[in-house]
Amino acid sequence: MLYAVEDFAHLSKGQWVADDATNKMVNDLIHNYKIKLNDLQGALRREKFTITVGDELPAGILKLAKVYIAKKRKLKVGDKMAGRHGNKGIVARIVRHEDMPFFEDGTPVDIVLNPLGVPSRMNIGQIYETVLGWAGMNLGRKFATPIFDGASLDEINALTDEAGVPRFGHTHLYDGGTGERFHQAATVGVIYMLKLGHM
Asked: What is the pLDDT, as a whole number, of residue 93?
């Protein structure tokens, strides 16, 4: 006795009764059922896909093919860059490595940020990242400092002393053009900067 529609899925064509005409009708019925079952299952799969993914095809379009092309672009003047703390800006000038400000040992810096961008954003996180990034690079460690439960000044000073980094990152740099030392110490460190993708 068959109690559910699913029971038909296990049926196969064969000799059901002694009468050939009746047997043919049963086999045709099973064959037609399996065709209809496949059609219904396909329709349900398509409907489920449309609900989960969404139907983005315009009217009259049957298939849509998307091709994504990856392209490497070198940084250029006018590109927008940002850090992790809302500190963003535009690339104003690109110079040769030897023209960048450099340390006493001759190591040039990679990027020079406008100092007015620090107080305007009123976000101390970028200073934390700069100083702790340099200390972490020397110590081979990573740091996580939450907003309301961050590292104290004493903890940061202890880490910078351990890493051999100047306190607050204050370092005297030298002009890449003239070779003379700048009058004031600059805050130097390691930060994460990225080029914004929508540009």
From this structure: 93
